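Page 47, continued from p. 46.
Same chain as before, 189 aa.
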Amino acid sequence: MQFVPAGEFKTMPWKNGLGITREVALGGDAAAFDWRVSIATVGASGPFSAFPGIDRTIAVLRGEGMLLDVDGARHELLAAGEPFSFAGEARVHADCIGGETTDLNIMTRRASFAHVMMRLRPAEPFTFIGPAGLTFLICNGSFRLEIGGKGYAAQPLDAVCDIAEGDRLRIEPQGQADLFQITVGQAPH
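Result:
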């Protein structure tokens, strides 16, 4: 388990040139990943890149949000809303609401891995215990974290990576803040 400040994430342009991605964590190699946790800045409305065989979940962190057209069905994703899941091979077009947005993404190779993303809205300090699988926590606000007896002042977009089952960390929100839990595990067979 490790604390990773957002400034340390690898940054790369999108395949379609319409945004940038900050890679939080990667399973496998970049060309044929098994899973990937990333934070993307969507600078303009436009199509999403296709990722056949990949399951995706997205949540808006900053900005007003976006309207997603997924294979002809319209979905509204707002900053205060819940994560939204879709197939990577779907035809997806995003219309930004009010300008640039920043979103959190998890993608897993469907044949081998599965994932869950959920928004946590802690009002009080608590101890997080890692569930089965490999877990990541992404801060969407400021938190005081204690990991292995060491304290961290986590800022928006910072992450705690590689949380194994049974790992414990103390989390104390600093004002109104939420965080996202992403857990990756083997696909059910």
